[in-house]
Amino acid sequence: MNVMESMPENKLLVHVDNVIKNFQGPAGVINVLRSVSLTVDQGQFVGVRGPSGSGKSTLINMITGIDRPTSGSVRVSGQPIEKMSENQLARFRGKNIGVIFQFFQLLPTLTIVENVMLPMDFCRVWKPRERPERAMTLLEQVGLADQAHKLPNTLSGGQQQRAAIARALANDPPLLMADEPTGNLDSKTADMVFTLFEELVKKGKTFIMVTHDVELAKRIPRLVEVFDGVLYENGQRVHS
Amino acid sequence: MSVAFRKVWRDLWNNKGRTLLVVLSIGVGVLALGMITASNTLLARQMTISQKASNPSNVILYLNGLIDDETVKSIDRLPEVVDAEGVASMNIRWKPALDAEWEQATVIALDDYDHQKFDLVELRSGQWPASDLAAIEFNHVAPYKVPAVGGTVYFEVNDKPKPMQIGGTVRDPQQFPPPFSEQPAFYVTRDMLVLLGGFRDYSQLKFTVSDYNEAKAERAADVVEDRLNKLGVGVGFVMTQDPKRHFLQDTMDGVGLILGVMAILSLGLSTILVINTINALIAQQIPQIGIMKTVGGLSNQIASLYLAGVAVYGVLSLVLAVPFGAIGADALARWMLSLLNVPAAPFEVLQLSLLAQIGAGLLTPLLAGLWPVLQGVAISVREALNAYGLGTGRYGGRFLDRVLGRIQGLPRMAALALRNTFRRAGRVALTEITLIAAGTIFMMVLSTHYSFNETILQIFKGFGYDVIIGFDQFQRIEEVVPLIESRPNVDRAEMWVFYTAKAQVPGTSGPGSEHETFLRGIPKDTQLFEPQLTAGRLLDPADGRAVLLNQKLAGKMGLGVGDKIVLDLGDKGESTWTIVGLIFDLAGRDQNTAYVYREPLNVELGLIGRASVAEIRGTVKTLEAQAAIEKDMRDYFKSQGINLSFTNTALKEQENANAQFSILTTLLLIMTFLIAVVGSFGLSGTLSINVLERRREIGVMRAVGASSLDVGFIFMGEGLLLGILSWLQAVPLSILAGKYFVEALGEVIDFPAVYHYSFTGVWVWLAIVVALSLLASGLPARRATQISVRESLAYE
Fold first, then answer.
1. Lower CB density within 10 Å: C or N end of chain A?
2. Does ipTM come in above 0.85?
3. pLDDT tens digit sequence for B483-527
4. Are residues B683 and B773 in contact, defined by beta-carbon separation less than 8 angstroms?
5. Contacts of residue B796 in chain A, CB cutoff 8 Å?
6. How many angstroms separate the CA atoms of A133 and A145, rounded?
7. 3-class state of residue B624 by DSSP
8. pTM, two decimal places
9. What is the pLDDT of residues B350-406, one digit of tens each?
10. Which residues of A lie inside 8 Å of B (Cβ-Cβ)?
């Protein structure tokens, strides 16, 4: 199925076009992604599913710029990110993509509010005196304002993940990417965190999320699946 | 403060152990640099100040005979002389109490203590010598157990003890504390000298020249010597002094240079240590670097964060290094100045040294950390975020891994310790460098000490005597030898002639052509003299005017075997001799000895059948036996009414020489200790880092049954293995480099020691490095045993 037809260019946020990703292993070349194409519009909530080792995390890494394709192109907000240098990518990511990890990845020696302010310091989107206020606002949105000055290791997994979400929103990026964000949480907390994601999408954020959770996947409006490096949607292979 | 910089500060604070380790590592190197540069500066400055303040004479003539005030005045009137002064001195026996044994002392008498001209003796406490009061060199009070001011000493006068009260202490720039002196120096009036020794005239003549330079001073000394010779007074030896530069400045500069090199080496090793530690720190921070890049951090922003942290290490190291470096420099300078009898200045922090320390303290960690930080922040986000799990998946790929993997039969824990040691080859290499450097230098310093001692031993063996005595007057050989040999425990006595001459290359004249030479006339049947020949042959009884020349003097004069040499015997005239051999000989001043047969020398001196020095071989070679012979000779000849000018024992002289060189080796060992400290920090740091990096592995080991002892054993085993490996590498290095080290040191202090390797040093260092390794690995091993399964396997 060709999903490029009749999509106005200015609503297109993510465009993965014919991406191939190979890794060199001890046993030879491993084709992790095989001519994968995907487009995501602004405001969409997209879930990515697939068995272990299918290439879904690699696909996410292509979009966040954490990894680069062997061939093909990846555009986010119209920018060809596979052509950017590391520094350009870092800055672009800081301003345009909020990344939420499975294992939270909060800096252990910074408090929660400081973790949220960290991307603001790097990207300087906000003036210095605006940053603490914005960080507290974000923490309020995720229900952690009263934990703002605590260190990550004093919080539960769910609280840490909510803090990570607040951090991802620090520079108000249009796109949020999450790689199994509820993988380390119990079902109740996972549900709570997922509800947060839904609210963010309602507020206009674009959200792409890798998940194993069958129940949560049912709540995601658009699902794509990766099997053996090939992308499928609604049972059909997605071509560029 | 930006949030990111707060992270840096907290990382430092939360890892206090690691922070302390890095700070100490940098601090030791910076401390060593500051201590040595400051002490060198203090030493040079104080020596110069002291030299100038003492208003030094330019020439000192030690006379064979006495001169009176009129003679001094006549010398003073010579056009070459600006001012002249005489000093009277004698050897005397003294004791601190009536029931004590007599010991040797020097008594010095100045004409007017309140109006001295040169080499000013300074009153330190009490009062100047008076009619019934003596003074004592303050440096000699404690070592020679002289009573304090107000106490009484006894001088031997006409075989009776004459009491004398100590009225004051003085500082004489010409006197030194042991081991650079052999007897105490007392100061009296000239009138008291008459009572003690029966004379008041001068045995030394000092004078100054205008616009001093060495050549001018030597020319003036020649003129004065000629005048004295005409008056029938011989000159023993001549010393010139630069008024602006202490005569030991060159030696101290050389020692300072060697210590400076070691301090820089210590700083360099500290830097290597810091590289290792920062490498590991960055390695631990890789996931966090990946996150910072993910949330928008640029490489240069992240690099500046970590470099800021590194700079904090530098600043903290200065907090340690600056004060302790200043204290150490002051203590070191004070000690060395006390050996030179030079007053020390009040404590101060030297600006230049402080700047050097600040520069080193800040730049060293920054330079050391630059590469690891830049390498670390250059990592891609993907690689950084993939760093979860046990190890990096790379072990087993290298040749070394496979070799170690094939070693069978080891207990599992031992195999783990062995293979873990080499997992991080770069880190191991840097750790080993510091330990190997410490071990190599330690063993080289011990070999240096051993080489000096062995060389001195061989030189004294070459002399062959146990006791040496000098007579005031030349004695009839055929009379005095039987007297000596009849005394208890004496095996053999030989009469030698000691004479100070001037040596010249034939056909040369003018300033700089004459070289002061200590001539030794030896009996043709000598059994005691066995010199170390470096060229040519020994003297042959068939030789006429043949000479064995000190190889150092020969080098200065550009002479070799077969060449002629002119010996100027003062008022006895000149004669030409043939050099038949060169010898290595420490005796004399600046190794200026020459050995001839006594008989041809006596012909030139007009003293046939006479000699003034007896070299005595005893039947037992112990310090006590030699001291007993020495005492017996003094008592016996006193009873015979024959005056002795000096006595000494070989073992005492040897001990004295050893003690002087021990000072240098002590200094070197202090520096070696600092380097060893850096090495043990390196080891401790490496093992601490290993524990941190292998937390999850430790957790897994514990989960499958490893006890605390098992875990501790692995890390202690790694530490021990690294220590012993460093020892194995340091031993051959120290053998190879030791020879050059001893040669270089010998050049600096003008003592060409023969190289002897100290095997004792090898075992001593092994013991030290094993102890250091166990100590250094103890804390990290203990930390490893405290890691629980839960905390190590939980995601952090």
1. N
2. no
3. 999 999 999 999 999 998 889 999 987 767 888 899 999 999 999
4. yes
5. 108, 153
6. 11
7. helix
8. 0.77
9. 999 999 999 999 998 999 899 889 988 988 888 887 754 444 445 556 777 777 767
10. 61, 64-67, 86-87, 89-91, 93-95, 99, 101, 103, 105, 107-110, 114, 117-119, 121-123, 153, 167, 170-171, 184
